[in-house]
Every structure is written in C-alpha cells, then in structure tokens.
Amino acid sequence: MSASSLFGRLHLRHWYSSLGYLSLPRFYSQVPNRPAWEPQPCLTLDMKLEFEKLWKQHVDDFGLTKHENRQNTYILSMFPYPSGKLHMGHVRVYTISDTLARFYRMQGFNVLHPMGWDAFGLPAENAAIQNNEDPSTWTEKNINEMRFQMKQLGCSFDWDREFATCHPSYYKWTQYIFLQMYKAGLVYRKPSLVNWDPVDKTVLADEQIDEKGNSWRSGAKAEKILLTQWFVKSTKFSKNLLKELETLQKEDWADIINLQKSWIGEADGVAFDWKIEGLSSDLSIPVWTSKPKLVNRVEFIAVEQGSMLDVLQAHNSIKEYEYTTKDGETAKFKAFRLNVVACNPFSKEKVPVYVVDGVLPFPPGSDTYMGVPSESEVDCMFAKTVNLQCKLQFEQDTSAETLCLKAQEMGIGGYPVSSNLKDWLISRQRYWGTPIPIIHCSTCGAVPVPEDQLPVQLPPFPSNEGSVTKIASPLAQAKEWVNTKCPKCGGSASRETDTMDTFFDSSWYYVRFLDAFNEKKLVSFDEAKKYLPVNVYIGGKEHATLHLYYARIVSHFLHQLGIIPCPEPFKRLLVQGMVMGQSFQEEETGRYLTRDKVEIKDNLAVCRATGKPVISKWEKMSKSKHNGVDPIDAIKSFGVDTTRLLMLADAAPFSQRNWNPEGSKGVFSWQNNMYMLVSHFLSVRDSAKTGILKPNPSSLSFSEGEKEAYSLRNKHLSTITHNYRNTHQFMVAIKSMQQLTKQLKLLPPEVVAFSRQYELAIATLISTLAPMAPHFSSELWQGFLSAPGRLNIDNSDIKWDKPVLEQPWPTLDSKFQLPLAVIINHKEVCIIPIPFEQFRTLNGDHMIEIALQHEKVKKILDNKTVLHCKATSMTERAARVSMAVPGLKISEEDIKYSFTKKGRQEAAKKKNEKKKEMAEEQ
C-alpha cells in the first residue's frame, strides 16, 4: 500500500465539507430510550458499566458546535504518535483536554477540540523493515487501533477534522511552508558535522542528543560525520522569540519560559558566516561575536578540537606551547595551524585558522572564536606565542548596525543571537518523512519544486532497504522517483532524497486543524482569526525545548507572511506531569518483580517466594519494570468515568501522578454517595407528592436549611468554577464536589422536598461533574429530571428539557457576596463583601476606588501616600487590592485573619456553636 492511499476514508470528510455539511451546527445524539429511573440500594460496578454503555453514543457524538454570536475557544492536546497502543499518559492528557472542552461548551463557547496523528517517523519505518511491510500499512493499522481506544475514553474530539501528517493532503502544505522559507532565505544547505545515530541510521539535531552524547530515541552513542544538510535559519527569530516570552501568562508558562530562555540564551551578539578556502569543496562556518564592529580587525579564527574543520583536516601534529601569565607563572596550551584560511565576509581579507585547546575564551556553546589581538590581551599573547604577525593599524571601525544589516542582505547572518543557539537542522536520511521539495540540477543548482506540483509524494517503500549504505537515504534507491526534469531548464535532474525532521511536520498542525481539508490554502485567514492563538494547549513538559520552540518559530514566520493573525501560537499552556507506576525491585539482585510476586508485611515489601526484601518505588511505566498499566484494562476494571476521575483527583495536572488502583475505592465511594443522594432526593420528593411529607416554610429548620443550601451551592460553585477556568486544579474542584455531596446529604427532609435552593444545589453538583464524568452525570441528571414537584421552573440555570451535557454552566446568585481583600504592606487589613452582580462588572480601577473608600482602609492610611496600588480579580471567586505605603506599620489589631488558619478555625467554631443552638431550640 503506498503512502498516497493512506487514509482514503478522510477524503469522504472532504467531500462532506465540500457539500457544506461541516459548516452546519452539530448536536448531541438523541437521549437514549431507557426505563424510568428506579433507585437501587447502592451503586455497583455493573450498574456503572451499564450506564456508560447506555450513554456512550450520546456522550461521544459531539465535536465543534457552531452558533452565531458565541465566543470561540480552542482546546488542544498534543497529538500522539500512532504507536498502536495508548498509555496512561495519553489517558491523562486527553481526560484533561476533554474536561476543559466540555466545561467551555457548558460556558456557552463554540469549542474546537480536534484530534490527529503525528504519523511520520523512525518507529514506523523500523517496524516496516523488521516486519517486511509498508510503513503506511503499519501506521494506518496503529491509527485505527488508537482511535478505537480513544473513543473508549469518552472524549469529545471533533473527528471530522482528523488528519495524519503522513497524508499527502497534509504534507503538501508542510512542503509549501518549506518553500516559503526557502524563498525568504531562511532555508539553506551546507556541509556540516552532524550527529549520526548508528542504530536508526539517521542524522539527529543537537537537541536530540542527551548530555552523555546518546541518541534521544535509540540510546546509541552518536557519531560525528560530515554530511551536506538542510537547515532553517531559526536563529533569525531568537530575539523576537525571547521578547515574546514576556507576553505569555507567567502562571502557566513559568517553567517553560525559564527552559526556553536558557535554550535560546541572551541575544547578546551576532554570528557571521566565514568562507573557508583550501578544501576540496565549498564550506563556511558561523563565527559568533559579542563585538561585531571589530570584525574587520580579526587576525585569526580559532576552532576547538573535534570541530568540523579539525575533523576534516585529520591531523595528528597538534603542538604544545608555553606562555607566561600576568602573575609571571608558566602555563601551556595546544594549537595547530590548519592548511586552510578563513575569508572575512566584509573585507575579503584571508586569515589563518588554528585548532586550539586551552587559553582562548571560546563563547559558551560555540566551537569557533574570533581572534582580535589589537583589542584583546589574550588574543595578542596567543598571536605572539604562535609567531603570527599582526597588523599595527586598521581602518576606522564600521558600526555594528551597518555590518549586521549588510550581513543580513548577503544572507550570512547578522541577526541578534546567543552564542549557544544553532540553526535548526531538518535533514533526515530516512524514507518515512515529508520529502524535501528541491530538485538538484547540474546546470541550475538547487531548484525549488513549483508550488503547483505539490505535493511531492513518497514513492513506494524500497524493498531492499537493508542494502543501503551507511549515510544514504533509502529514497536514493527509488531511481524512477529520483530521476526527473529540472523545472527551470528542463534538463536531467534528481530529487532531494533527504526527508524532513518530524518536528517540522508538527510545528504547524494546530493551524491546519482550523481548515483541515482546504485544498487551495494552508488555512483560511478568517478561520485562523476565529480560533488563534490556541486558548489552552495541553501536553508533556518534555516538549518544552523542542516542539514548543519549533512551533513558535513557524508561527512567527506564518504571521510575518500574513497567513495567521498572531505570532505566538498558544495562549495558555497546561503542562501535564508524567503518570508513574509502582515497581518492585529485589534489593539483592536488582531484578524487577510483578506485583503478584510481592507481599507486603508490616508496610515492608518482600518477595513471596524467598522472603527477601524488595524495594518499592514509583517510576516511569515500562514493560521491563512490570509497572505498566493498559488503559483498556483500567476501564474494564473501574469504568470510564472512574478512570477519568482517578486521573483528575489527588494530584494537580502538572504534578507527577502515581497510578494507584486503590484510589478507585475512594472515587467509587463518592460516586456511590452521589447516586444515593439523587436516590434520596427522588424518595423524599415522592413522599412530598403523596402528602406523607408536608411543607412548613415558617419552621426554623427549613429557613436555616434553605440558607445553608444557598450558601453551600454558591460557595462550592465559586471554588469549582475557579479551578476549572483559572487554575486547572481539578483535584480541588473534585474535593469541593465531594464536600458538597456530603453536606447536602445532611440537610433535613423538608429542605430536600420543598427548598428551591436545595434543588438548585443538587442540579449544580451534577452539572459541574459532567465535564469530568459525562456518562455518570448523564445518568444522575436523568434521575434528577424524573423527580416530581419541580420548583425552579423559571430558573435559567436549569434547562428541564435538555440532558446534562447541554446544560448551561451554573452561575452564582446575583446577591451572593464575594470577597475583595485589601492588602497593605503585605498585611490583609479587611475583607469587603461585594454582591456577585456588582463584582463581575468591576475593573481594576473600580476595585481600587472601593478599597480606598472603605472606612477601615482610610483610617489605617491616615492620608499617607500610596506608592503603588494593584488590583487582581478572579471572576466568580475573589479579588484583591494590594497597596504599598512607605513608612506605614500595620498594627496587630488591624490584621484580618479571614484567610489564615486561625481565621478559618474561628469561623468554623462559630458556625458549630450556631448549629448547636439551633438543635437545642428544636
């Protein structure tokens, strides 16, 4: 099967789109027909699994819902490589993204939540070689398997936008981006000393080599070889990339900002390309300097041992030199003058090149050094020691700005960059990747493929791949494909046989989701304007310096071309921590054991067979450590919703998550409590309907219970919404729901039967659970709807004719008071309660004005000058006004303890005393 036939079924989606079907609103499937809700004594696993089976189609059938006059939001999880099987990390990231997507739908947004496949790459090709099958066949099989598994998770992906990066209709536009970069002078080809993976037989970028010099994928020790490679001038974007980091939301991007700042480095210099003469082929090397204006004073170029020029010269005669330090001591360094010269790109003057070990201060991360003896004592000492004759006088220095502009025009660098940042190496010597759309002609040189001839499709997979020489691409064997005509002169020519790094494929996929089957454009600007930047991007921290860096480069470039409306691709970033499995390792032998071979005695693990000590620890899941968990097994054991809740509970998304099946007991217990709460609600309502229970609105227990239900609903809704929307701390939202479940259960029967606030509270509890556990909440909602005696008929928070997934997100009562805390010199001095209807309309200036007009604040300030004042607000939660007043001391009596441990304890004590008084009165 050829690559061009892969995913033929996707063309059906394009056909539907051409008929206009995909532009129509999408709706949930019809609510399933089911018998009347009959409460059972308790919830069982079989009941849960039956609920999920019953509601599955309803829960799954939903992607992007289009409504006029609604705000759009784009929730995106990093698309997976189709390895054929989901792991628990996938379960975590897709549960998080689906929870957010469902939350924002209930908030009234048009939500885009797509899914696709990062389908090119070495694993597919290696598997094809091992199993004697086409990579496209292997990839398609894995995609089908993983799509099926994803659908078991109840995720509401918009499958109508599905694509794979290995499909020609996608990589046509990957090639298009490459060609636009080529036209802009951002893509170039040159000989380079590269990292060669001897196992996977391909080049790796520096970013794909660990600190030990090993391949990021195979683990093999990388070799250094010289190859002519394709590069993207990513360093041109470094200054803007660094600057734009400051615009990103610090709370989400904090760790990533630090990582990328370290990776990009301070753009405190520039690099110029110097041509090397004296070799059999043309070669240039980048030379970085923090003082570009001195470039015309350069007397020599130095390179480190092991650098490209050193390897090319292959000398064995490096010489040791002695010199005298400032302190009068004797020191040594090694150097050797190469049989080449470096040509100054501006003055055209030729200077010698030395391999140097020691003495010269090479810039961090750079293996080249610009020697200027007239400006540097160290350089002068080096020149004298190696007997290099230097100039005494130079022409007046040209300004750095002039030199840099000239270099940019000449295409030899000149952009602000750090010394350690290198251009992006994108060549790979493999078959299963995007073909580079370049044709090599002996007359015309490198000629880009005309855009109307895109895509350049992969030929059939070479059957004799095993005979490929060490550094050749398998595509070189496809002679009929390789041999072609030059688009420029019509003469005989050959296609480029390297393919692109898969990071290039994934650097722009978030854009294509917006217009997945547009054959005329990469994306419609109108569609891009609706949804970019991505509102929340969810994925692993391991992609912080690679994928996110490359995606930002391509996004900046597409913005410069006017293809997309913004330079930065992602607004908020939700970095998901790794899911760890519990492993058991024999202390004596280091052998890993399966869980069934371990026994726990007095909290100590021992081997069942030998009784010897076993070390128990949490590690990355792997087959070799016997600590992996199959997501489908988890779903079969606990159900979909319990598995989802397990992933969200007990740990923040960005924290490491230890997978412990025992946690399912606590989640199941809560689900049972919710089921029993709804059952109790139905039972009490039935009693009220038959007259067994009669209303008494004047009783103290009813009025206090009504107030309690009101307070509980609004207080917990505030916490839940805040953690959905602002912090993404789903574990906190779950704890709040658990508390609300427990507290509603304690209210007296007359409140359950006749309180509008109780009815609203139980509806709020079920609907706020819906994004996390859509099947279970759908069933609970059906039970809630079946209760007689509806009280909130006119309340807009409950749509009695709609299932829970189509409910609006609950809102706080307009009179419910939210706290505005006033902080002076880091001390909280008062809390100003503000009704929600007013609170949500306040901006920062209004909040500061309210704080300054408060009597206690005016008294404390006593007309002193406020040096700095800042207001921050979290909608539906709380607000804060912070003031800095020099010389003002806050007395102990003026400090408000509302948010401290002592304050909470005092408030709880008063509340318990009030409840006790009420009980005594009854």
From TrEMBL:
Stored Pfam families: Anticodon_1 (PF08264), tRNA-synt_1 (PF00133), tRNA-synt_1_2 (PF13603)
Subcellular location, principal: mitochondrion
Record field: compositional bias (Basic and acidic residues): 903-922
Record domain Aminoacyl-tRNA synthetase class Ia: where: 61-250, 419-582
Annotated localization: Mitochondrion matrix
Alphabetized UniProt keyword annotations: Aminoacyl-tRNA synthetase, ATP-binding, Ligase, Nucleotide-binding, Protein biosynthesis
InterPro entries in alphabetical order: aa-tRNA-synth_I_CS (IPR001412), aa-tRNA-synth_Ia (IPR002300), Leu-tRNA-ligase (IPR002302), Leu_tRNA-synth_edit (IPR025709), M/V/L/I-tRNA-synth_anticd-bd (IPR013155), Rossmann-like_a/b/a_fold (IPR014729), tRNAsynth_Ia_anticodon-bd (IPR009080), Val/Leu/Ile-tRNA-synth_edit (IPR009008)
Top-level enzyme category: ligase
Methionyl/Valyl/Leucyl/Isoleucyl-tRNA synthetase anticodon-binding domain mapped to chain residues: 714-817
Entry EC no(s): 6.1.1.4
Protein's UniProt name: leucine--tRNA ligase
Underlying gene: LOC113213508
